[in-house]
Design a protein that fits this description.
Arp2/3 complex 21 kDa subunit ARPC3; two-stranded antiparallel ribbon; about 180 residues
């Protein structure tokens, strides 16, 4: 089992803080949310593995949810997709030899973003039923737009993240050597 160092916990905390801020700065129309909060989760998962990806997703999204909405019956359901995103990407990155090739990164990020979108859509349905704002168009009406946004974001992340990961790996390796 991997030992968590103060340095690693600090890196995860910084990524979780970025996740919370990016979630808070989202464009939210109620049924469609344009956010970049999964970027720090993806970075943690790709660089450090599933435990770090899950921790960043859990803490970052929890802080965002508490600041924006407080605690509700569906708070855990809104956090779960990002925790699973960190798990899925982290397990895949750990299984494959580093550095992941471009096609591998595109594949796993598209899969993770589809999982996040599917679970968030399901959570929106449950939330709308519990709190009484459900109408048939809330899910079906925005589903196509949500899926298109999901794929566009995933492809953009998949092409931008390798540009971020290379220098971050070098910085992390220098820090370990010091």
């Amino acid at each position: 089992m991997r030992k968590f160092t103060t340095r690693q916990i600090t890196l995860d905390a910084m990524l979780a803080a970025m996740c919370a801020v990016l979630g808070y700065l989202a464009i939210d129309t109620g049924t469609v949310k344009v956010t970049f909060e999964s970027v720090p989760i993806l970075i943690a998962a790709l660089l450090f593995g599933p435990l770090d990806g899950m921790a960043v997703g859990l803490v970052g999204t929890l802080v965002y949810q508490l600041l924006r909405y407080g605690i509700s019956a569906t708070t855990v359901l809104w956090i779960l997709p990002y925790v699973l995103c960190g798990l899925i990407v982290g397990l895949y990155a750990k299984k494959k030899p580093f550095p992941l090739k471009q096609g591998q990164i595109v594949f796993i990020i598209v899969v993770a973003e589809l999982v996040v979108t599917a679970l968030n859509t399901l959570t929106l349905f449950v939330d709308s039923k519990i709190y009484g704002y459900y109408f048939p168009g809330i899910i079906q009406g925005a589903l196509v737009l949500r899926l298109i946004l999901c794929v566009v974001k995933a492809v953009a992340y998949a092409y931008l993240l390798p540009l971020l990961l290379r220098p971050l790996r070098k910085i992390i390796q220098k820090g370990k050597a010091a």
